[in-house]
Every structure is written in structure tokens, then in C-alpha cells.
Amino acid sequence: MAEVVLEAVVGLLFENLESVIQREFDLVWGFKADIKKLSATLSPLREVLADAEVKQIKSKAIQKWLARLKHAAYDAQDVLDDWAIAETDRIRHRPAQSDATGTNYRAHLVWSSFMSFINLKRLVFRYKLAKQIKEIRERFDGIAKEMSDFSLIRKSVDVEGSVVPPQSISSGRVTSSTSVEPQTYGRETDKENIVKMLLENINNEHVISVCPIVGIGGLGKTTLAQLVYNDDRMEKHFDVRIWIYVSDDFNVKRLLEEIFEVTTKRPSSNNNLDAIKNGVKENLKEKKFLLVLDDVWCEKQDEWNRLKNSLTSGAKGSSIIVTTRLKKVASITKTVSEPYQLDGLSPGDCWSLFRSYAFDVGKELEKPNLVRIGREIVRKCGGLPLAAKALGSLVRFKEEENQWEQVRDSEIWELDEEEGSDQCPKILSALRLSYNNLSPRARQSFAYCSLFPKDYEMGKEELVHLWMANDLLQSERMEPEVVGENVFGELLSHSFFQDIEKKEEGKIERVKIHDLMHDLASAVMKSEYSLFEVGMSRNIINSNIQDDEIRPRHVSIILSPSSSETCVVDVSSIHRFLSSHQRHMRTFSLISNEDRGMLYSHDVISIIFGLKNLRALRVERWKAVISLPLLFDDKLKHLRYLNLRRCGLSWLHGESFRGIKNLQFLDLSQNDRLKTLPDSMGEYMEHLKHLNLNRCGLSSISWCLLIEKVDH
């Protein structure tokens, strides 16, 4: 899939640039001419981005032009951020007015001598800044000259983007992790067929019957499995029901641990595989169980046999449902005569599903022309429920016939066939169309979700905080928190989120994204967002990012150990990977999927050293970090978000936070050995908006009295 919609990046960065320039314009001296020229260049470039994003799909030259434009915009933002921080420090350290007599006079002389040295440093900084801005202005001038080569059409730009307010979202589409939507279409017969198969257990010679559901992505295999799993007859027939999302991590030990946790309602305290097997054997003994393994990709017969042989203590009539896209997986797991091949929805059912998302109940009768166009759009869905949902959500907020016709007639429908995609072209085209019609903010915010692993429960609050830290929610008219609510609502209303988890009062707390949506998020901005899930047998240094045009700015490294041993990360491999990209890095996450990851304080320092433009840092579930020494100094002056959740912290040095005065979000939760926070820490927290100390061992925080408006 070609990287698309760079306007989502460039448009937002231009908005931030203009905002900074306008806000600080009067304070800039010595290079006003370059600032004026840079500002004048931004407007025409922004106006062609909408046309460029369409034409670059079929033009490598425009793709490369947009990439150069994007890199220049990022570099400009970094320079202006450096200058804004320097100006803030200058104002903060400005001395109070005093008379020049006696003791005050002597103090004045000392201060004047000190300030002479400081002013010299500022002059050097301003000279360097002026040079950088001139270079950036010249880069933009060159990019603007190339614009005429592409015959791009100018279009007016809505600065804020089309954002859907949260209150317009239909609450009827909310789902949970193991429950289906309130209304499904065309799967009743499929459900009855599988339920009948499980109840009759047609393969009596097998203690465990295995029924694979196989089909391409987006057909609704998971939804069908959920329908079966939640059927009242299943609850009565089976003593135990277990649901596990597998994906490409078919780790037998992990799967057995999850089975153990479900059957005992407590986590496994033993890392020994044999001990876990014995625990599962005892918990399932003479019990009839239903196990759903969702989204299986592992084609290794021996791995499957290892798992299945660990479950044989269950009673006769126990069953396993496997959902998969791969026929080979279905073949090696089945005990039934044939895997259950799931087909697309009928035209009538596909229309019913599309209609439920595109129209309010009964409103389609008032819009016969839109119904006609809608049926033509549905024919392009190929019977795929995910495509019907995405396109129905897309046109729901479009009132004009020509807007629906643009969806129906988009060139994107032809693109996947030209590229020879091995995925189903219909679903890729439908998801691309839905993505392309989001506002620029929502597009980039959605791409940010690719930093989380598949099936990850993303906290709404955490997601919005990360967006804010990376300047994705800047607005001249609204607070970023409000913009974040609106962007989240836009993604939700367009069906980009699923498996919604709510608090008791009805507020959304966590969401997931469909694995195909995750693939889309990874593809649309693959040069900027990189996720690595590293097992014991894989090394980050073997990463295939070698292209000079690929500059990852947001990187997540997730350690998923495949053995029971404690995992000590290979810090040198991370160093090698980051060395050529550290100047561009804005988000860096290093997360262990289990509590056996080991990362020491000096390793943290060595890993992040040089990431001078970092906005967000997440180091989670790494035991033995133990302390946070004089870590940051002035190395991370742009840092706004710091997450050290569940890292075994026992103490903090107050001066650690001296160099990160722009910090807005701090998460120290689940460090139960952290008993106190240093008083001096509060001196550097003037911009802090959110502090999470949940499940820490703190008795009091005296310095919080110095912080106003902190959200605990």
C-alpha cells in the first residue's frame, strides 16, 4: 500500500507554524525578513495539499515532493519550538527591578556580570537560530518552486477541519471485547450451523472438537464467533468458556497462562511452563469447556499440537473455535470434516448493515436519491461487513448527492487492483476512502494508534494526552482537551474504534481497533510510525528500515518474550537502530508485555541520550529501573509526556525534572515501592496538567500545593 494523505501531517504542521509565527512575531528581531517570507510561502503550499494528496496516489514524483515538504515542516517546527523555549526561559529569569544602592547595588553588579555572560550565550543562540530559519526558508522556497511542475489545483483550507462533536455519536454501536453489536445482519444461519455442530459434537472419537472459521479479513469471523460464544445454549452446555485473542503471537506458554487466569480468576504466579500446564490440567479436569482462539496465524503443526495436548484433561464434548484467514491454519487445526468457510453477506444484508450506519432509523425514506447511490456503493463492498460499516459511517454526515457520488466514483476503488494487493481490494479501498474523508487532525491522530500493538486496549485519556504532547490538537479557537474529545468522537463515529469499554457513569474509558484498521494505520504513515514487537529470537538491529526517505519520528518497541526466563533487553541493538534517527524522534516507547523485563537506570539514560526533540517518552513494565537519577538535565527540554508506569521505582531525585520544565503529563502509577516524592520536584512542574499516582505507596505530596489546576 502506497503511503497516502501526507496532508494530514503537513497541514497540521503548517497550522502550528503559523500560530507560533503570529504569536511570537513581535519578539523576533534580526530575522524578521525570513519569518515574513516563510509565512508568505506557507499559504499557497497549504492550498494545494488537498489536490496533491489525491494525485500522489498515482505519482511517485508528488509523493517525494510531499515527503520533502513534510520533513521541512517538521524541522521548522523544531527550530521554532527551540526559540519559544528560549524566550520563555529569558522571561522566567528576568530580574526584578531594584534600586542601585548599598547591598542592592553590589547584588546588581554581580547580577549584571552574570547576565553579561548569559547575554553572550543568547547572542550566539540567536545567530544560530537566524541561520537555521534562513536555511529552512530557502528549503521552502525550493519546494514552492517545484509546485508548478505538478499542475496542482488550489483549494481553500478549513483550519480547524471538519470535526464531529461527541454528542452526535450513536451510543447504539458500542461493543465490548466479547460481545457483538446490538444488531447484526446475515449471520443467523451461520451461527445456528456452528452452534448445532458444537452441541452435537459430531466427532465423537475426539475428546476435543475443533471447528475453524476461515475467511478473508473484514468478513466478520470474530463477530460470528462472538455470536456463538454469547448464545444462551453455549452458557448452559459448557462448564467453562474462554476467549483468547491470538494474532501472530502463538506463544503456547502465554496462551496457557491466559487459560489459567480465566479458569482460576487470578494470575499465574509460576513462570515454569510445566507448572502452568499442570495448573491448567487441574482446572479443566472433567469440565466441558469452550475455547475461542481468535485471529490465529501460526501454521506450525507442532505448536498447535503442544497447545491441544495440554487441554486433554477436559471432559468429552469440549470444543475449540479457531478464527483465521489462512486455509492452512484451518486445515491443521480442524477435527470436523471441513472448516467452516465464511462467505460475504448477501446484497440485501449488506445493504441493511450499510443503511443502519448511513441513516437514522426511517430517514432513508426521505432521501430516495441517496438510497439509490448508497445501493451502488454497497455493490462495491463485496459483501464485507467491515467495508459496509466504514462506508456507511463515512456518508452518514454527507447531505449532498455529489458527496455520495464522490465516494462511489473515487479512483481509490481501482488502486488496489493496479497494485496487485494480496489482500481483498474491496476492504482496503473502503477503509482508505473512510480514512481519506477524516479531518487532517483525525487522520494523523488515527495513524498514531499504530504505535500500540494489535488488540491493545487504548485508554482514551492516555491517547488524548499523547496527541496533545505531539501538537496534534493545536487550535486557535479551542483548548486542546476539547479538540481531543472532538477528534476521538470523529474516529468513533466513523467506526475506526471498536470494543468500547465504558465506566459506570457511561463515559468511554478504553477502545480497540480492528486488526485491518491497525494495518491501515500502519500503512498510511509508515515512514513516520514504527512498531516493533521483539521476541527473544529477534533483534531490532535486523529492522528493514534502510530507505533514506523513511524517517521514523514515533517508535514503539514492545518486548514479547517467548520463554519463561527474565528478559534483559539488548540495549546496544536499540542504540544502533536509533543512532541514525535520533534527531527526528518525537515519541519513543519501550514496553515489556510481561513483568519480567529488566532495564536499569543507566540503560534508560543511554537509550534516550540524543533524542533532543522528544515529546513523549513511555517506559512501562520494566522492573529494576528502581530510580530516576539526574536523567534529563537539558537533554529533553521539549518533553511534554512521561510515562514510567509499573517500573519498580523506589525513589526520585528532584533535580531529575529540572530540564523538563515543559512537562504536562506525568504517569508514575503502579510503582508500589515509591513512598515519597522530593519537595524540590514541584519547582519544575509549572506546566503540569495531569499527574497519575494511582497504586503508588505515597502518603503525601507537599509540593502539589504549588501546582494549580493539576488533574490527579
UniProtKB/TrEMBL annotation:
It comes from the Eukaryota. InterPro entries: Apaf_helical, Leu-rich_rpt, Leu-rich_rpt_typical-subtyp, LRR_dom_sf, NB-ARC, P-loop_NTPase, RNase_III_dom, RX-like_CC. Gene3D superfamilies: 1.20.5.4130, Helical domain of apoptotic protease-activating factors, P-loop containing nucleotide triphosphate hydrolases, Ribonuclease Inhibitor, Winged helix-like DNA-binding domain superfamily/Winged helix DNA-binding domain. GO terms for biological process: defense response; response to other organism; RNA processing. Keywords: ATP-binding, Leucine-rich repeat, Nucleotide-binding, Plant defense, Repeat. Residues 435-512 form the RNase III domain. GO terms for molecular function: ADP binding; ATP binding; ribonuclease III activity. Coiled coil: none annotated. This is RNase III domain-containing protein.
